[in-house]
């Protein structure tokens, strides 16, 4: 069974992320969406909130599981009996960073392979950071994120979040 791990902060998850998940399920037997925790990052949503939003977005999509992890990605990949990491690429700047991470992971564990999936054109400019910035200034994000995520992010900002 080919199990792929799709890691990210997903703060929040976008339609671009969902596109990668859906396409990865056509290639791999199982896709684990892993919400990674990075103590140096300042998140808008808690890890639990991100996992819940993603589960709601996936609405029981077959072959997909959502989990979270606080540690090295390669340790998580091994723990889940996988050797496959899936990463979405939007632009060349993504490639540079992800290439560096893939080589580092390969150095730490030669059995781990990273598969890059190019984001669909219609999602290529969307990022979680862009979504948060648009919401902060009352921009329309309905084309970029699912409705449940849009409701959650508006609620965060209404509660006084200034990120």
TrEMBL record:
<keyword id="KW-0460">Magnesium</keyword>
<feature type="binding site">
    <location>
        <position position="9"/>
    </location>
    <ligand>
        <name>substrate</name>
    </ligand>
</feature>
<dbReference type="Pfam" id="PF01467">
    <property type="entry name" value="CTP_transf_like"/>
</dbReference>
<feature type="binding site">
    <location>
        <position position="17"/>
    </location>
    <ligand>
        <name>ATP</name>
    </ligand>
</feature>
<keyword id="KW-0067">ATP-binding</keyword>
<feature type="domain" description="Cytidyltransferase-like">
    <location>
        <begin position="5"/>
        <end position="133"/>
    </location>
</feature>
<feature type="binding site">
    <location>
        <position position="98"/>
    </location>
    <ligand>
        <name>ATP</name>
    </ligand>
</feature>
<dbReference type="GO" id="GO:0015937">
    <property type="term" value="P:coenzyme A biosynthetic process"/>
</dbReference>
<feature type="binding site">
    <location>
        <position position="41"/>
    </location>
    <ligand>
        <name>substrate</name>
    </ligand>
</feature>
<dbReference type="GO" id="GO:0005737">
    <property type="term" value="C:cytoplasm"/>
</dbReference>
<keyword id="KW-0548">Nucleotidyltransferase</keyword>
<dbReference type="InterPro" id="IPR004821">
    <property type="entry name" value="Cyt_trans-like"/>
</dbReference>
<feature type="binding site">
    <location>
        <begin position="123"/>
        <end position="129"/>
    </location>
    <ligand>
        <name>ATP</name>
    </ligand>
</feature>
<feature type="binding site">
    <location>
        <begin position="9"/>
        <end position="10"/>
    </location>
    <ligand>
        <name>ATP</name>
    </ligand>
</feature>
<dbReference type="GO" id="GO:0005524">
    <property type="term" value="F:ATP binding"/>
</dbReference>
<comment type="pathway">
    <text>Cofactor biosynthesis; coenzyme A biosynthesis; CoA from (R)-pantothenate: step 4/5.</text>
</comment>
<comment type="subunit">
    <text>Homohexamer.</text>
</comment>
<dbReference type="GO" id="GO:0004595">
    <property type="term" value="F:pantetheine-phosphate adenylyltransferase activity"/>
</dbReference>
<protein>
    <recommendedName>
        <fullName>Phosphopantetheine adenylyltransferase</fullName>
        <ecNumber>2.7.7.3</ecNumber>
    </recommendedName>
</protein>
<comment type="similarity">
    <text>Belongs to the bacterial CoaD family.</text>
</comment>
<feature type="site" description="Transition state stabilizer">
    <location>
        <position position="17"/>
    </location>
</feature>
<comment type="function">
    <text>Reversibly transfers an adenylyl group from ATP to 4'-phosphopantetheine, yielding dephospho-CoA (dPCoA) and pyrophosphate.</text>
</comment>
<keyword id="KW-0963">Cytoplasm</keyword>
<feature type="binding site">
    <location>
        <position position="73"/>
    </location>
    <ligand>
        <name>substrate</name>
    </ligand>
</feature>
<keyword id="KW-0808">Transferase</keyword>
<keyword id="KW-0173">Coenzyme A biosynthesis</keyword>
<dbReference type="InterPro" id="IPR001980">
    <property type="entry name" value="PPAT"/>
</dbReference>
<feature type="binding site">
    <location>
        <position position="87"/>
    </location>
    <ligand>
        <name>substrate</name>
    </ligand>
</feature>
<dbReference type="InterPro" id="IPR014729">
    <property type="entry name" value="Rossmann-like_a/b/a_fold"/>
</dbReference>
<feature type="binding site">
    <location>
        <begin position="88"/>
        <end position="90"/>
    </location>
    <ligand>
        <name>ATP</name>
    </ligand>
</feature>
<keyword id="KW-0547">Nucleotide-binding</keyword>
